[in-house]
Design a protein that fits this description.
Length: 95
């Protein structure tokens, strides 16, 4: 299991989660991304990021609210197809 970043992060990009992550698995490209992403292959499921998020955007994969389930795929997708992940984020929450 991994953690997933969801809609509340869009256009906020607070990096408190990055600061507490012991394995540096949370990434984004500054100036290109509207949110942060957790690499599921690097996440060790420690949970440190979840309480650090000031907008409650991070959930354990099994606890992602139903209306946010698309972000499970989007977080994974960003690590192989960044532009496609960005398009999906824009479709879910237009600028």
């Amino acid at each position: 299991m991994t953690y997933v970043i969801t809609t509340p992060c869009i256009d906020v990009q607070d990096q408190a989660c990055v600061e507490v992550c012991p394995v540096d698995c949370i990434h984004f490209d500054e100036g290109k991304d509207r949110m942060l992403y957790i690499n599921p292959d690097e996440c060790i499921d420690c949970g440190a990021c979840e309480p650090a998020c000031p907008v409650t955007a991070i959930f354990a994969e099994d606890d992602v609210p139903g209306d946010q389930s698309a972000f499970k795929e989007i977080n994974v997708l960003w690590y192989s197809e960044k532009d496609e992940a960005r398009t999906k984020v824009a479709a879910l929450k237009p600028a």
